[in-house]
């Protein structure tokens, strides 16, 4: 069982309620967890990726170029440099990440040294 609430809404009296709920969950054979927020930076990354859910045109074919260049694990900077217009594809790269055509590790910041991998269909 997971109790999710923003940290600013947790009151001192809630701590006792969490303890009682935890004991009740344990007696039923369940685990109980209180979550008050994301690890630093995760919410920002999820929000940045969420912006790219809406349809967008790609007249230069950058998404195809990115997918063609992602033939295995490659650093983000190398992947972008492999396109005809290296200044532009970062926008399309985020869309491919959101649509799960490409993947990367969310445990660190997304930058030129981040490893990007194709996702099997």
CATH architecture of the largest domain: Orthogonal Bundle
**N-to-C series of helices and strands:** EHEHHEHHEE
Shape: elongated
Beta percentage is 5-15%
Q: What is the number of E strands?
A: 5
CATH class of the largest domain: Mainly Alpha
Low-confidence segments = none
Count of structural domains = 2
What name does CATH use for the topology of the largest domain?
Arc Repressor Mutant, subunit A
How confident is the prediction overall: mean pLDDT?
84
In order across it, which strands form the biggest sheet?
3-5-4
Name the helicity range: 25-40%
| Structural Rg | 20 Å
Describe the structure.
This protein is of the alpha+beta class and 121 residues long. It folds into two domains: 2-35, no CATH class; 42-118, Arc Repressor Mutant, subunit A (Orthogonal Bundle), CATH 1.10.10. The chain contains five helices and five strands, in the order βαβααβααββ. It has helices at 12-27, 42-50, 62-69, 76-81, 90-98; strands at 2-4, 33-35, 74-75, 102-104, 115-118. The strands form two sheets. The chain has a three-stranded antiparallel sheet with strand order 3-5-4. A two-stranded parallel sheet has the order 1-2. α1 links the parallel β1 (2-4) and β2 (33-35). The chain is elongated.
